[in-house]
Amino acid sequence: MAEAAVSMRAPATALAGRYYTDPDIYEREKRAVHFRTWQYACHQSEIAQPGDYLAFDICGQGLFALRDREGAIRVFHNVCMHRAHELVEGRGNARVLRCPYHAWAYELDGRLRGAPNAEKVQGFDASAICLTEAKVEVFCGFVFVNLDPEAAPMAEWYPDLEHQLRAYVPGIEALRPVLTNAVPEACNWKVSVENYNECYHCRVTHPTFSNGVVDPDMYDIRPQGYCLRHTTVAANLERMTYPVDLSASEHAGQYSSWFLWPGFSFQVYPGGVLNTYLWRPDGVDSVIVYRGWYTPEGVASDVIEGLARQDLDTTVAEDVTIVNSVQRGLGNIGYRPGPLVVDPAFGVNSEHSIQSLVAWTLEALDEG
Predict the structure, then answer these.
(1) HSE-up of residue 29 (Cα within 13 Å, Cβ side)
(2) Residue 302: helix, strand or coil by DSSP?
(3) Is 212 exposed, middle or buried (0-12, 13-18, 19+ CB in 10 A)?
(4) Is the domain of 108 the same as that of 234?
(5) Domain boundary residue among 121, 146, 171?
(6) pLDDT tens-place string over residues 123-153
(7) What is the pTM of this model?
(8) Do 124 and 191 reside in the same domain of the chain?
C-alpha cells in the first residue's frame, strides 16, 4: 500500500492565476506564442484581385495581406522602411503601395520603387530596401501567417488536418465568408480558449447547443500535434434547431471542430455548415472573438443567418458570462488552482484538453 502511494502522481492542475492577470506574462506570450505560431490573416476571396489588400493586427503588430501582380498572396508588416509610418488602412486596391507620410512607393512584391528626391542622396540604393515579409500559407482558401521565418509548415503543426477537414466539407474551396460577428470578452485570451476546448461544462451552461445541435454524451476531444480535435454526433434530428442536409458529406450527421493552437478553430456543424473562431488578444484581460460563417460563393442564406443569430443569443452569450466571471475569479487572492479532471479514457467529462493547452503555453514560455 505504501509503495502504491509513493508511485501515485499528483493530478495535473490549471495554471496559476498570474498567468491570466500579469501584464509581464502577457508581454512574454506575445513574442513567445503569438509571434511564433500560425495566425489567421483573411480568406483568399477577400483579396481576390492583384493589388487587393487587407490590414490586420496580431497583438499590436500591424500587417497586411496582399495579392501581387502574379496572383501570389503575400503578407507584409504594415510599416514604411523610411520613418515607420503605416502604409495602409482597412482594405482596398492599389497599383503601388505609397506611404502617406513622405510618398515612398513600393511595388506589390515589397521592393522600393522610388522615394522623392532620393537621387540627391549619395549612396542611396533603392534595390536594398524592401518591406518586411512574413511567412504565409494558404490552407483550403484560408490565409495564415507566421512571424517566425523559421517556423515549420502547418502540416507539421496540425497533422492530418486538411484530410479530415475536406472529408467534412468537400466543397470548402468554393466557400466564401458571408457573415462575421465580433464579440469582445473581458478576459485573458487563454481563459476563452480553454473554455472553448472542453465540454465538461456544456450540459450545465449550454442547453440549446447540448439539446438542439450536438449530443454532448458523445463529445470527445483528442490532441493531434498542436491541434485539439473535437468530435460528436448531431442531436436527435427531430430536435435540431435548423434543417440538416444529410447529403452534404459522409459526415453530415456529425459535428467536429479543429482548434489550431493558439487562436483559431474550424468548426463544422451537422449538415456540413462551416463556422470559424478567431481569437485576437487585445490586452492581458481583453480578447475579441470573431465568429465567421461561410456559404458557397458567399451567397446569403436564411439558415446560416438563423444559426448565427441562435449562436449569438445562446452559446456565445452564455460563454461571455462564463469567461468574464472566470477572469474576475482569477484575480481573487483566495484562488488556488484545483486539480484538472483528467479521464484516461477521454470523453466529455474530462479536461485532458486543458492539460494540453497548459503544456503548450509553458513550453512556449520555456517553463515546462
Answers:
(1) 24
(2) helix
(3) middle
(4) no
(5) 146
(6) 999 999 999 999 999 999 999 999 999 999 9
(7) 0.92
(8) no
